[in-house]
Amino acid sequence: MDDNHIVEIRDLVKNYPVGGGHFTALRDVTTDLVVGEFTGLVGPSGSGKTTLLNIIGGLDAPTEGSVTVLDMPLGGKNHKELAHLRREGIGFIFQTFNLLPVYTVFENVEFPLLLIGMAADERKELVDQALEWVGLTDKVKSRPAQLSGGECQRVAIARAIVKKPKLIIADEPTANLDAKNSHNIMQILVHLNQELSTSFIFATHDEKVMGYLTRIIHLIDGRIDEDEHISEPEYRKGK
Amino acid sequence: MLRFLIKGVFRDRSRSLFSLIVITLIVALTVFIRGFMAGIFDDVFRQSAVIFAGHVKVTTQAYTKEADLLPNDLAILGADSLVAALAQQYPEMFWSSRIMFAGLLDVPDEYGETKEQGPMLGFGVDLFSPESRMLEIWELERKIVRGRLPEEPGEVLLGETFATRLGVEPGEVATFIGASMYGGFVTYNFDVAGTISLGVTGIDKNILIADLQGVRQALDMQDAAGEIVGYSHDMFYDDPASVALAADFNVNVDDPDNEFSLFMQPLRDHTQMGAMVDIAGYMMGIVILVFVAVTVLVLWNLGLMNGLRRYGEFGMRLAMGETKGHVYRTTMGEAVVMGIVGSFIGTVVAVPLIWYLQEVGLDYTGLFEDMTFVVSNIIRARLTPDCYYLGFIPGVVATVAGTMLAGRGIYKREMSQLFKELELEA
Q1: In whole angstroms, what is the distance from residue A150 CA to residue A152 CA?
Q2: Which CATH number is associated with domain A36-45+83-237?
Q3: CA distances from A209 to A99, A184, A187, A189 (A)
Q4: 3-state DSSP: chain B helix, strand, coil percent, rounded to 5?
Q5: ipTM of the complex
Q6: Where do runs of H (alpha helix) occur along B360-398?
Q7: Which of A84, A79, A158, A153 is nearest to A115 (CA)?
Q8: pLDDT in tens, B230-242
Q9: Which residues on chain A are in Cβ contact (under 8 Å) with B1?
Q10: Which residues lie across from A39 on neighbouring strands?
Q11: How many CB pairs lie under 8 A apart between chains A and B?
């Protein structure tokens, strides 16, 4: 695997059984994601965005072809090895935040570090840092129910970023947010992308998100229709 | 991680408080039912053992055959030395001679004429020997209604109902009219020391309790006893042990050709007590089994509901890299902790209740004034050793089983659906 590549996908095909036959969600997908890219998977419903995110995140297995993520070929890997990959190297941001309601902001962000068995003092340092990145240092003891939607998504971002993963997978991260909060969230993500060199891959329909992307992969019917590299994203033009 | 999860359990009230309340109530109820039923049945055995049968009882063969007639002419001679021998041979029980006798009790007026008269059932029990536990097991001190305990061999206690019916007061004289051991006509004046209520309506109507020596004197039965009764030291009837002890005794003394040879019977061989012992065992087993089965279903369902309610949380944890095995194990761990804590609290709640009912009891005398069956008028529970652990069976096992079943969903979960599922959870 090329040192500069964080994800390598070759001739990927994904079929799902439907009735007696199968439905092809992805066909002949070949692409690489480079370290530090801010990539969006864009396309209509059923185009294969979420399927591709699932496969990159080790949540689903390819039918054909090969996928290598963070130097680990995913083919033939068992559930535990894939869980280890996600735990150590990948952060997830969900459309609906999926925070644990009974825990405080601090504890929600701390959770991924507990999974990797980090010591308490080190955890505290990293959580404080992550909360500072997302601007929630004054909410450490709040519960999710006491936060706005935008704040919840910032907590989710802190949770995804706290272990400083090399790759963050985000499925429609702004879908439940208003325009102002969407822009705030994207600015935070761009900032983290630049500061930590963390690679981001989004599945999105949101035009506001697209304005921040440095690469847009257009998917149609499970194929890459267009792979667009953007040297100057829209948000920079507006500055 | 463990602390983190425990923190979550206790903060989530529907996972902790609600679950704890349900487990606690169910465990408390299970334990209480167990103690209550043990008390009910034990009370039946205890009453019968104290009043009639002992846990084991030694009589002559002939006396046994005609026991209903209280045939003191067939009594054991040399009873005192036999009691000493039994105590030596079977120290797991304590032994005491006693005489049951029947006749009329006549209460005279101030002119010495019969004022009132009635049939009586007398018990000559050892009230005064220092080693005797008869006062204790008959609970006479507690059951005194009027007057006091006998202090002399010639003093007696009468059932309160009996004394009221005869119109005799403590301090007055009542005359026993009956037959001696040798068949002679006997009239003997007893001084009424007090009245008692045993809490057994059928017995309280005609009972007379006197010291063994007084009765021996009245019936001309020196060193004789109609029966020698043996009781386990903790007064808990152990049916297999009593049967084995009686069998052991009978092997050594049985002589079919001698009607005065000794014979020991366990409580279960007294009238229909055997069937009662068996029925008690079966009923208690069935009731406990049904109750535990129902509670298992309830707690199983609770575990299942909790598991399903946390479907989203499990999905998020899986997506973030927690293994299915770890999610499953931590969930089981939580169920074990909740089960143990709930069972402990439930047991702590139930045990004092059982203890209270064991020591104080629930008096329902007023409900069954005309009852002749030998059952105590005071409902008592019994704190058996299994009361301390029985509740943990539904409390822990069922909760864990429910969680285990719900947890199967963790393994069956399609990881590829997590993003979609988690979108739906919010």
Answers
A1: 5
A2: 3.40.50.300
A3: 22, 11, 10, 10
A4: 55, 20, 25
A5: 0.85
A6: 392
A7: A84
A8: 998 878 888 888 9
A9: 114-115, 117
A10: A201, A215
A11: 86
